[in-house]
User: Fold this.
Amino acid sequence: MAVRCADWAEPVRARAREQLSAELDAAAAVRLAPLILRLGGRRRGGFALGLLRDVLRRAPRERMSPLLASGDRAVRRLGYGLALERGLLSAVELARAAARDDDTVVRARCADAALAAVTRDDAPQVLDALLGARNPHARSAGVTALRRLDQADRAVDFLADRAALVRACARYVLRQQGTDPLPWYRTRCADPADPALPPGAAIGLAECGRRADAALLWPLLDHPAPGVRARAAAGLRALGVTDVQRMRRLLDDPAPGVVREATLALLPSADALPVRWLLRRLDPARPPWERLSAWRLLGAHGEDVRLRAAVALLGDPGEPLRARALPVVRGALRWGAVRGRSEPAFAELLARGRALVE
Assistant:
């Protein structure tokens, strides 16, 4: 019946709509919600969707619970949207939903609504749910609420959060009460051997520091924790400070995250790295992350070098890199002929590439 409400034939459509309007109660609406939501995107599907919303707006609170617990993301969005519209959920319930739901839309709406509804009586439970959440949006909402609830000092605990959004909110809250977070970061990063140094402190220093603060980040490239080394490399890149030789050694770091950040930092200066050295790093015996790093850095050397690397990878046993190399060779076979390039070395590369592609 719900399907026929969007039927192409007007008599069928009219009869189905009349029948659905007469029979759709709260229980049926909850049961049919997944189907009607999917039909709502079709031509003439708006009638059933509008009827569904009207019925659920009048449904008892207990009938809404299955929508909020549904495994269907669209159904949960509908359920929480209507629950917020009707004011059915407390600030604590909203905070818990923001902390646990896996949908970004539901999390964002519930977190914002929890902050709007929180009172001093339920503040401890709301903050516990938000600040302890795994997702950054909920944590950032909790940190932002600290200022409103006169608990801004607690924002210090989130200056080194793993998420940039949360760190930014913590700095904002502290600045609003007149506290500059930069000295905290400098003090926290002053000991490069501190085993308890959180990675977020290194990147946080770069986010609000100055180029002179690079002096505190360079020693952290030798920190025993891979996360700290990676964030220190990312911080140096954010500050626009790159020493090619000092950063180059990180390409041999055993941690993939460190190699990735070092690669990003070196990309603007890739032409300072020897091509032959980078080509050797494509060797299949090397770890996959080192080979991917070499491929990216070779690509920054220009079209000819990128083609050399791509041809070398066409016979590669590693499918991910071969998949990256294939379109490069095919593109060169097209634009090489168009541009009329005939240099012997380039022609030889094209010939090898053509043989491997075909």
The mean pLDDT is 88.
